[in-house]
């Protein structure tokens, strides 16, 4: 994923086919990073007006992906509806087998420290850590092998029986 940091604001270079949406005081943008991974970047405020739209936007764009980086580094305000959106996204990703990671601004981190003290949401320290986490998960999925053994033995009546 190519990004440019300008005054701590994530700027995605415009690419044909990128889907950008403005919802109230926030802008959402998506970028396909690879065949299996997308990045959704958010800039602005996530509040009661657009928290639900954030969740819908992410769900819409993760339908054809296996991995998601949710980049919230440029979020200036993150209200409780933002946490509700993250919870909804988490449930969606679990149900659809999408691995994901969150990279958050200090506002996002502060709210998650209160609302998610157990660290259930996949908050990464920085973008590099988020990408490493997703790479590690992807690598382990590709190298997982079925190790169960099934032995077929004849049953006392002559039929075969799996054990």
From TrEMBL:
InterPro entries tied to this protein: STAS_dom (IPR002645), STAS_dom_sf (IPR036513)
Annotated Gene3D superfamilies: STAS domain
Organism: Mycolicibacterium poriferae
Superkingdom of origin organism: Bacteria
Alphabetical list of CDD domains matching this protein: STAS_anti-anti-sigma_factors
Designated name of the protein: STAS domain-containing protein
Domain spans labelled STAS: 39-128
């Amino acid at each position: 994923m190519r990004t440019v940091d300008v005054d701590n604001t994530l700027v995605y270079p415009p690419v044909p086919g990128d889907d950008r949406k403005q919802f109230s005081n926030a802008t959402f943008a998506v970028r396909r990073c690879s065949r299996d991974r997308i990045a959704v970047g958010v800039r602005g405020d996530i509040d009661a007006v657009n928290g639900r739209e954030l969740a819908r936007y992410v769900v819409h764009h993760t339908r054809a992906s296996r991995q998601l980086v949710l980049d919230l580094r440029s979020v200036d305000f993150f209200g409780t509806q933002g946490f509700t959106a993250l919870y909804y996204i988490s449930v969606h990703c679990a149900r659809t087998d999408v691995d994901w990671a969150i990279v958050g601004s200090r506002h996002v981190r502060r709210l998650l420290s209160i609302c998610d003290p157990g660290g259930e949401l996949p908050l990464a320290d920085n973008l590099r850590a988020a990408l490493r986490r997703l790479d590690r998960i992807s690598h382990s999925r590709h190298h997982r092998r079925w190790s169960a053994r099934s032995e077929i033995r004849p049953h006392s009546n002559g039929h075969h029986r799996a054990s």
